[in-house]
Amino acid sequence: MTSMPNAAHSTPDAQAPVTLLVVDDHTLFRRGLIALLGQDEGLQVVGEAGDAAEALRLAPQLRPQVILLDNHLPGVMGVDAIQGLREVSPQSRVLMLTVSEDAQDLAGALRNGAQGYLLKTIDGDLLAQAIRRAARGEPVVSPELMGKLVAAFQSQGAPEAPLGAAMPAQGEAAEAGDAAGVSPLSPREEDVLREIARGLSNKEIARVLDIAETTVKIHVQHILRKLGLSSRVQAAVYASDRQR
To answer: In degrees rounded to 5, what are phi and psi of residue 49?
Structure first.
């Protein structure tokens, strides 16, 4: 619809806000969402669009860090527009924000390159956190969809970037330990893996386990390395498989 390069203000000394392009065909919801995001000084909506075609036109001009994309759009569905958006604006992360809880939509969005998939029922503060995480390149999925995501991965295989290549056979590094009935992870790493499977962020895991967020990041790195995995989502799938 419009571009809004001056939609938010930041002080010279402040960290630059995350820039956003909001794509949703429902004008009332879109404007309400923009108003909500505008209350956060760390976020700046630089443009809005009512359909995929307009988003494809605006994205290369505005170069937003994150594109908030609805799925049910007129003409071209959001899931089908992801690859085109990534091509015309490769520096942008595409974050789905939709009412659809369909497992096919979820798996398709991630397979097509979405950085995450969130439901419109998400709390405003959590949405702002998810946007920041997506801008940093972290995959984000609504916790209530994690079970469907795991099931979709198990039946269809892991998606391509940005969530990592196809999952190894539960991680070559883990095979020897699993065969002997011994986990390659330390007890604390097992705790972190359990919380990853619940869809928690590093900050949330740190709060639950009462440890520093930097410590959580180190544990996550060790978990992925030991299990031969390349993403948090693959770690969640691994944890689910092991519980079966």
So the answer is: -145, 150
CA 52, 54, 60 angle in degrees (round to 5)?
A: 100
Separation of alpha carbons 174 and 158, rounded Å? 18
Integer Cα distance of 79 and 102 in angstroms:
12
3-state helix, strand, coil split of the chain in percent (to 5) is 50, 15, 35
- Which pTM value belongs to this model? 0.63
Rounded Cα gap, residues 206 and 183, in angstroms: 22
Burial pattern 88-98, b for ≥16 Cβ within 10 A else e, equals bbeebbbbbbb
φ and ψ of 97, to 5 deg: -135, 105
pLDDT digits (tens, 9 = 90+) for 151-173: 666 665 544 434 433 333 444 44
Query: Is the CB of residue 205 less than 8 Å from the CB of residue 192?
Result: yes
Q: How many CA atoms lie within 13 A of 152 on its CB side?
A: 19
pLDDT at residue 9 is higher than 60 = no
Q: What's the Rg (C-alpha) of the chain? A: 19
Average pLDDT over all residues of the chain = 81
Tokens standing for 172? 């070559």
Give the C-alpha separation, 234 to 70, whole Å.
Answer: 25
Tokens of 217: 């990041």
Tokens describing residue 238: 């691994």
